[in-house]
Amino acid sequence: MGIALADAAAEYGAIVELVLGPVNIIPQNSSVRIINVSTSESMSAECISRFQFCDIAILAAAVADFTPVEVYGKKIKRDQSELILKLKPTTDIAETLGTNKNPSQILVGFALETDNELENAKAKLIRKNLDIIVLNSLKEAGAGFGHDTNKITIIDRNNNIDKFELKSKEEAAKDILNKIVAIIQKMSI
Fold this sequence. Notes:
Layout: H1 2-11, E1 17-20, E2 33-36, H2 40-51, E3 56-59, E4 66-68, E5 87-89, H3 93-100, E6 106-113, H4 117-127, E7 132-137, E8 149-150, E9 152-156, E10 161-163, E11 167-168, H5 169-187
Parallel strand pairs: 1-2, 3-6, 6-7
Antiparallel strand pairs: 4-5, 7-9, 8-11, 9-10
Protein backbone atom coordinates (compact mmCIF):
# COMPACT_ATOMS: atom_id res chain seq x y z
CA MET A 1 0.00 0.00 0.00
CA GLY A 2 2.86 2.37 0.82
CA ILE A 3 4.43 1.84 -2.58
CA ALA A 4 1.09 2.43 -4.33
CA LEU A 5 0.73 5.66 -2.32
CA ALA A 6 4.25 6.80 -3.21
CA ASP A 7 3.66 6.19 -6.92
CA ALA A 8 0.27 7.92 -6.87
CA ALA A 9 1.61 10.93 -4.92
CA ALA A 10 4.43 11.33 -7.43
CA GLU A 11 1.86 11.18 -10.25
CA TYR A 12 -0.06 13.97 -8.47
CA GLY A 13 3.14 16.06 -8.62
CA ALA A 14 4.38 15.63 -5.04
CA ILE A 15 8.04 15.38 -4.11
CA VAL A 16 8.04 11.94 -2.48
CA GLU A 17 10.48 10.41 -0.02
CA LEU A 18 9.59 6.81 0.78
CA VAL A 19 11.04 5.28 3.94
CA LEU A 20 10.93 1.65 2.88
CA GLY A 21 11.48 -1.51 4.86
CA PRO A 22 12.51 -4.85 3.33
CA VAL A 23 10.12 -5.59 0.45
CA ASN A 24 10.17 -7.42 -2.87
CA ILE A 25 8.78 -4.55 -4.94
CA ILE A 26 9.78 -0.94 -5.50
CA PRO A 27 7.92 2.13 -6.78
CA GLN A 28 7.45 2.35 -10.53
CA ASN A 29 7.84 6.13 -10.56
CA SER A 30 11.55 6.94 -10.80
CA SER A 31 11.08 10.32 -9.08
CA VAL A 32 10.29 8.62 -5.74
CA ARG A 33 13.34 8.90 -3.49
CA ILE A 34 13.75 5.67 -1.54
CA ILE A 35 15.31 5.57 1.93
CA ASN A 36 15.89 1.90 2.76
CA VAL A 37 15.60 0.75 6.37
CA SER A 38 15.79 -2.71 7.90
CA THR A 39 14.57 -2.27 11.48
CA SER A 40 11.72 -0.51 13.25
CA GLU A 41 14.35 1.59 15.02
CA SER A 42 15.87 2.80 11.74
CA MET A 43 12.41 3.44 10.29
CA SER A 44 11.37 5.57 13.26
CA ALA A 45 14.66 7.52 13.17
CA GLU A 46 14.27 8.28 9.45
CA CYS A 47 10.60 9.26 9.74
CA ILE A 48 11.13 11.47 12.79
CA SER A 49 14.17 13.26 11.32
CA ARG A 50 12.33 14.02 8.05
CA PHE A 51 8.96 15.03 9.50
CA GLN A 52 9.77 18.67 10.24
CA PHE A 53 10.53 19.20 6.54
CA CYS A 54 7.38 17.68 5.08
CA ASP A 55 3.88 18.95 4.42
CA ILE A 56 2.18 15.55 4.40
CA ALA A 57 3.25 12.30 6.07
CA ILE A 58 1.45 9.08 5.25
CA LEU A 59 2.29 6.23 7.63
CA ALA A 60 1.28 3.07 5.80
CA ALA A 61 3.85 0.65 7.23
CA ALA A 62 2.88 -2.04 9.71
CA VAL A 63 5.82 -1.56 12.06
CA ALA A 64 6.22 -4.07 14.87
CA ASP A 65 5.06 -2.86 18.28
CA PHE A 66 7.82 -4.83 20.03
CA THR A 67 11.41 -5.80 19.30
CA PRO A 68 13.83 -8.19 21.03
CA VAL A 69 15.81 -6.72 23.92
CA GLU A 70 18.86 -8.73 22.87
CA VAL A 71 19.81 -9.47 19.26
CA TYR A 72 22.23 -12.29 18.48
CA GLY A 73 24.59 -12.13 15.53
CA LYS A 74 24.70 -15.89 15.12
CA LYS A 75 22.52 -18.95 15.40
CA ILE A 76 21.34 -19.86 18.88
CA LYS A 77 22.05 -23.56 19.35
CA ARG A 78 19.34 -25.78 20.72
CA ASP A 79 19.85 -27.22 24.18
CA GLN A 80 17.63 -28.73 26.83
CA SER A 81 16.62 -25.45 28.48
CA GLU A 82 13.79 -23.30 27.28
CA LEU A 83 14.48 -20.04 25.52
CA ILE A 84 12.89 -16.93 26.98
CA LEU A 85 12.57 -14.06 24.59
CA LYS A 86 12.34 -10.59 26.18
CA LEU A 87 10.72 -7.84 24.15
CA LYS A 88 10.69 -4.06 24.50
CA PRO A 89 8.24 -1.61 22.90
CA THR A 90 9.34 0.12 19.72
CA THR A 91 8.94 3.84 19.12
CA ASP A 92 5.35 4.66 18.17
CA ILE A 93 6.09 6.66 15.02
CA ALA A 94 2.53 7.95 14.53
CA GLU A 95 2.26 9.11 18.14
CA THR A 96 5.67 10.81 18.03
CA LEU A 97 4.87 12.64 14.79
CA GLY A 98 1.38 13.54 16.03
CA THR A 99 2.89 15.12 19.13
CA ASN A 100 5.31 17.19 17.02
CA LYS A 101 2.89 18.07 14.19
CA ASN A 102 2.36 21.73 13.37
CA PRO A 103 -1.05 23.03 12.19
CA SER A 104 -0.01 23.25 8.53
CA GLN A 105 1.06 19.59 8.33
CA ILE A 106 -1.22 16.70 7.42
CA LEU A 107 -0.62 13.38 9.14
CA VAL A 108 -2.25 10.21 7.82
CA GLY A 109 -2.14 6.93 9.70
CA PHE A 110 -3.43 3.43 9.10
CA ALA A 111 -5.29 1.08 11.41
CA LEU A 112 -5.60 -2.66 10.96
CA GLU A 113 -8.40 -3.74 13.24
CA THR A 114 -10.13 -7.05 13.90
CA ASP A 115 -12.72 -6.02 16.53
CA ASN A 116 -14.72 -2.82 16.99
CA GLU A 117 -13.03 -1.57 13.86
CA LEU A 118 -14.56 1.90 13.53
CA GLU A 119 -14.42 2.70 17.24
CA ASN A 120 -10.79 1.60 17.56
CA ALA A 121 -9.75 3.50 14.43
CA LYS A 122 -11.49 6.68 15.62
CA ALA A 123 -9.80 6.40 19.01
CA LYS A 124 -6.40 5.99 17.33
CA LEU A 125 -7.06 9.02 15.11
CA ILE A 126 -7.63 11.19 18.19
CA ARG A 127 -4.97 9.62 20.43
CA LYS A 128 -2.22 10.05 17.85
CA ASN A 129 -3.34 13.50 16.61
CA LEU A 130 -3.90 12.33 13.03
CA ASP A 131 -5.83 14.22 10.39
CA ILE A 132 -6.91 11.06 8.58
CA ILE A 133 -6.91 7.39 9.48
CA VAL A 134 -7.28 4.65 6.89
CA LEU A 135 -9.01 1.60 8.31
CA ASN A 136 -8.08 -1.78 6.86
CA SER A 137 -10.13 -4.80 7.79
CA LEU A 138 -8.78 -8.32 8.09
CA LYS A 139 -12.35 -9.57 7.72
CA GLU A 140 -12.50 -8.83 3.98
CA ALA A 141 -11.34 -11.54 1.60
CA GLY A 142 -8.71 -10.19 -0.79
CA ALA A 143 -7.86 -7.12 1.29
CA GLY A 144 -4.67 -6.08 3.03
CA PHE A 145 -1.40 -7.97 3.27
CA GLY A 146 -0.40 -10.36 0.52
CA HIS A 147 -2.99 -9.05 -1.94
CA ASP A 148 -2.98 -6.56 -4.80
CA THR A 149 -6.34 -5.29 -3.59
CA ASN A 150 -7.58 -3.52 -0.49
CA LYS A 151 -10.87 -2.40 1.03
CA ILE A 152 -10.49 0.78 3.02
CA THR A 153 -12.53 3.17 5.11
CA ILE A 154 -11.21 6.71 5.47
CA ILE A 155 -12.06 8.64 8.63
CA ASP A 156 -11.04 12.27 9.01
CA ARG A 157 -10.59 14.53 12.01
CA ASN A 158 -14.17 15.84 11.60
CA ASN A 159 -15.57 12.29 11.82
CA ASN A 160 -16.42 12.12 8.12
CA ILE A 161 -16.40 8.47 7.10
CA ASP A 162 -15.86 7.31 3.51
CA LYS A 163 -16.23 3.57 2.87
CA PHE A 164 -14.86 2.10 -0.34
CA GLU A 165 -15.39 -1.19 -2.11
CA LEU A 166 -12.61 -3.71 -2.71
CA LYS A 167 -10.31 -2.31 -5.39
CA SER A 168 -6.69 -2.32 -6.48
CA LYS A 169 -4.18 -0.78 -4.10
CA GLU A 170 -3.40 1.79 -6.80
CA GLU A 171 -7.06 2.87 -6.90
CA ALA A 172 -7.24 2.88 -3.08
CA ALA A 173 -4.12 5.08 -2.99
CA LYS A 174 -5.85 7.61 -5.25
CA ASP A 175 -8.89 7.61 -2.95
CA ILE A 176 -6.61 8.44 -0.01
CA LEU A 177 -4.80 11.17 -1.94
CA ASN A 178 -8.08 12.68 -3.12
CA LYS A 179 -9.13 12.94 0.54
CA ILE A 180 -5.84 14.68 1.37
CA VAL A 181 -6.32 17.09 -1.54
CA ALA A 182 -9.84 17.91 -0.28
CA ILE A 183 -8.42 18.70 3.17
CA ILE A 184 -5.72 20.94 1.65
CA GLN A 185 -8.38 22.79 -0.35
CA LYS A 186 -10.42 23.39 2.82
CA MET A 187 -7.31 24.62 4.65
CA SER A 188 -6.62 27.24 1.98
CA ILE A 189 -10.13 28.72 2.03
